[in-house]
Specification:
The protein is an all-alpha fold and 79 residues long. Helix content is 54%, strand content 0%. The protein has four helices and no strands.
Length: 79
């Protein structure tokens, strides 16, 4: 894997944050972790927090992919 050019990593982070902040943050982050880990128990939230709907989770995952995030490269999934 090549090293990012100066500013590329910051631009990627900014696109990622722009994608996830369109959704409730706890539901969004837990949805991404559930996908990365393959463990649906990450989707559990306690009131008043709510998990993302299936449609919102799919939209989030599409938005994150469109931002240039590659889970196998950028995520901290299972070792």
């Amino acid at each position: 894997m090549r090293s990012p050019e100066p500013g590329e990593d910051l631009a990627l982070i900014e696109r990622f944050l722009g994608a996830i902040t369109r959704f409730p943050i706890f539901g969004a982050l837990k949805s991404l972790q559930a996908e990365l880990s393959g463990d649906p128990s990450w989707l559990a939230l306690r009131p008043p927090l709510m998990p993302l709907s299936a449609a919102d989770a799919a939209a989030l995952h599409r938005a994150v992919a469109a931002a240039g995030i590659v889970p196998g490269r950028d995520g901290a999934g299972p070792a």
